[in-house]
Amino acid sequence: MYQILAGLQIMNNLDTQNPNNYIYKTKAIELDILGGLQLSKLESLRVTLSIEKLTKTKAVLNILRQSIDLYNDNQVEKLVRKCAERLEIGTSVIRKTLQELTKELENYRFLLTSKQAELQKPFSKTLTAKEEKEAIQFLQSNNLLEKTNELIGKSGVIGEVDNRILMYLIFTSRKTKNPLHCISLGSSGVGKTHLQSKVAELIPEEDKVEITVLSANAFYYFNRTELQHKLILIEDLDGAESVLYPLRELQSKKRITKTVVHKDRKGNTKTIHLTVEGPVSVAGCTTQESIYEDNSNRSFLLYIDESEEQDQKIMQYQRFLSAGKLNEQEQIEAKDILQNVQRVLKPIKVINPYAEYLELPQSVFKPRRTNSHYLQFIEAITFYKQQQRENQYHKETGEEYIETTIEDIQEANELIKDVLLHKSDLLNGACRYFFECLKAYLKKENQNLFTNVEIRRILRVNPSNQKRYMQQLQLANLVQKA
User: SUPFAM superfamilies, from UniProt (predicted)?
Assistant: First the structure.
C-alpha cells in the first residue's frame, strides 16, 4: 500500500524520503522516527521517536523523545501515559496513532527486507534466443575442443595451451555429479593466479565463489544448497588453510555437517546441525606442493609453464596491452560466447561403455584415486559435447543419458598424459623443471660434471632453491657428488 510521488515514497501517512528520519503525521500529532528501522531483528520493532503536538499556530509547544519497542505492550502504555501528561494529548488519540504507526512501519520493513533479499540474490543472466542458438551451434561444431581452446586464447589467456583447456573442462565439470578439481603449481610470480582468474572469467558469475580469506567455520553457514554445482576459487591456498579440511570433505563426501549448540528465545539449549550440500569444483594456487598433499591427491596438478618462450609471449602481450594494440572487443566476444556455452549445458548422466577396457600404467601415483579422476575427465569431455550426442534412455529406469565415444577417450588421453606423468614423478614440478634444464645444459656442453656455482649462473637459480633441488635429486639417485 504505497505510491511514488515526485521521488518520495509515501505509505499512507508515513513519509520515508529521508532514510534516517521517517515522518508520520496526523491532524494532531507529528512523529519522527529517528535513525530509520533495523532490518535484522523482525521479532522486535525498536525505534527512537520524537513526538510533538501540532497546533493551528504551528508553534511547537513541547517535544517528547523516547526509544521504544513498539511490539512491547508495557512500553507502549507507559509512552501513552507520558504523552498524555506532557503533551496534553488524549490517551485514546495517542494510543490509536501509535497502533497505526506500528502497522505502517511493519509493512514498510517487510517491503525493505523483500527488496534487500532481491538485491542479494545472485545475478543470473537469461540468454536471448539468438545467444542460446549461437551457443548451441558452437557446441555442435566439429573439433569442439580445438575451437574452444582457440577462443580461450582470444579471451586473453596467453600460452598455457594444454593447461587452459584442461582447466576450462575441469571448471565445466562442476555441473556434473562428480566434479573435478585442480591445483595450479609453480614458482612465485610465474602467473598461477593469473591463469586461474582468466579461465574463471569464462565461467558465469552466478556459478562461482571466489575466496581470498575465509574463517574455519564460514563454510558451514552457507545456505544448504547455496554451493551446489559451484566453482570455488581459492587465490592462494596459503591464505585459506583454515578451510582446507571442510573443502576436502566437500570434495570427497559432497556435503559437510557441523553440530553446534544454540539457545532459543526462552533460553533453552538445544543441538542443531548445519549442513551444506555439494558437489563443488575447487581450484587453488600454491608454490608448496608437498604441504597440501591431501588436497593434491583429490585434484589435477597443473604445472605452470616457466619457459623463456612463455616469458616472451607474456611480455609481448603486456607490451601490446600498454600500446593499446589489443583487440579488446574480440576478447569480450570470446568471453561472452564461452560463458553462454556454459549456461546452455544441461545436467545429464554420462555412461562410458568402454570404461571396463581402460587401464592406467602401474607406475601411476595412488592408482585408485587417479583412475577415478581419469574416468571422470573422460566423462567431463563427453558432458561438454552433449549437443553432439543422441540422448538415450535406460530400458528399466527410463533415466536419460549420453554415451562416451572413442574420440572422447583419445582427446582425454592426449590432454591428460602429462598430468598423469607428473603425478607418477618422484620429483615435484619445480624440481623436475630444474632437472630437465640441467640435463639440457649438460647435453649442450657435452659434459656430465658441474659445480653449483656454474649452474646457479647458467640457470639463474637462487642458492636456497638450488640446495633444495639438489637434495631431492640426490635422494632420487639422479645426481651424485663427484
Answer: P-loop containing nucleoside triphosphate hydrolases
Let me know whether 62 and 176 are in one domain. Answer: no
177 φ/ψ angles, rounded to the nearest 5 degrees = -75, -25
Helix (H) or strand (E) holding 187: none
User: What is the residue range of 282's domain?
Assistant: 129-347
Task: Kindly state whether residues 114 and 134 are assigned to the same domain.
Answer: no
Count of structural domains, the chain = 3
Cβ count near 177 (within 10 Å): 14
Q: Do residues 165 and 314 both lie within one domain?
A: yes
Residue/partner pairs of 112-117 with CB below 8 Å, 24 or more apart: 112/37, 112/39, 113/39, 113/42, 116/39
Residue type, 89: I
Domain boundary among 304, 321, 347: 347
**Residue 96 and residue 167 in one domain:** no
Angle of helix 129-139 versus helix 328-344 axis, rounded to 10: 80
Do 169 and 271 belong together in one domain? yes
* Bridge partners, 303 (sequence order): 185
- Report pLDDT digits (tens) over 172-208: 999 999 999 988 887 777 778 888 889 999 999 988 8
pLDDT digits (tens, 9 = 90+) for 223-251: 888 888 999 888 877 766 777 788 888 88
pTM: 0.73
Instruction: Give dist(CA 99, CA 105) in Å, integer.
Output: 10
Give the separation between CA 14 and CA 21, rounded to whole angstroms.
11
Are 112 and 211 members of one domain? no
pLDDT along the chain (482 residues), means of 10: 38 80 87 85 86 70 84 90 86 89 89 79 79 93 93 89 92 92 80 86 89 74 85 80 78 84 73 85 79 67 82 86 86 93 93 89 74 90 93 87 93 85 68 82 85 84 82 84 77
Backbone angles phi, psi at 269, to 5 degrees: -90, 135
Give the H or E element holding residue 346: none
SS3 161: helix
Has residue 385 been placed in a domain?
no
